[in-house]
Write a structure and sequence with these properties.
Structural class: mainly alpha
Mean pLDDT: 87
Helix content: over 70%
Largest sheet: none
Radius of gyration: 25 Å
Distance between the termini: 87 Å
Number of helices: 6
Low-confidence stretches: none
Shape: rod-shaped
Strand content: under 5%
Order of helices and strands: HHHHHH
Length: 191
């Protein structure tokens, strides 16, 4: 083999290696983007589950604590607002979901003043469902945010940032609840 042939083979090898690396990086971005979409879908399922439990909570509490109208109206309003913003980006939706979580916590705290309500089997079952749902929301949010963090990090570091920019991969928003008080699942007093 002549020097020219060796150089040609080396050049072709380098081009093939570069194209292979490009393909691997692109495919990894595509997989991460799909994982983010999937994990947001799971988060949305859990948020919708909470939205669906709110009317039952309001109806149950209303039967025992009818004069707590302001608290019940606040949770109903918060649910309506959260439902109206279901298609928003996670960053924008977090504010509405945070208000809803706070309103649910207020309703559960209000129930503490009504021993008959606290003893109601349907209320206790509903409280358990809400607690489980809040835990699921927190877990889904952590999973989603972890995927976003990994994806956004790849978009920021060299050389994958070159591939990301070249193919139009864009940063994703985290799903954050702005009020630290609603980051905690409501506590359930079994007594």
């Amino acid at each position: 083999m002549s020097t020219g042939q060796v150089a040609l083979v080396a050049a072709v090898g380098l081009i093939a290696l570069a194209l292979g690396s490009l393909a691997v990086s692109y495919n990894r971005f595509a997989r991460q983007r799909t994982l983010i979409d999937e994990s947001w879908g799971q988060t949305d399922v859990e948020l919708t589950r909470r939205h669906d439990l709110i009317p039952n909570l309001v109806a149950t509490v209303q039967g025992y604590a009818a004069h707590e109208r302001a608290v019940l109206e606040a949770v109903t309003r918060a649910r309506t607002e959260a439902e109206a913003h279901r298609r928003d980006a996670p960053r924008n939706r977090g504010a509405y979901e945070g208000v809803l979580g706070g309103a649910v916590t207020d309703v559960l705290a209000t129930a503490e003043a009504y021993p008959d309500l606290k003893a109601s089997r349907s209320f206790l079952a509903l409280q358990d469902e809400l607690t489980i749902t809040e835990d699921r929301i927190a877990a889904a949010r952590r999973f989603y945010n972890g995927n976003v963090r990994a994806y956004n990090t790849r978009l920021a570091v060299f050389p994958s940032n070159l591939v990301g920019r070249a193919f139009g991969f864009a940063r994703r928003d985290f799903f954050e609840l702005r009020d630290p008080a609603v980051r905690v699942a409501p506590t359930v007093d079994p007594s």
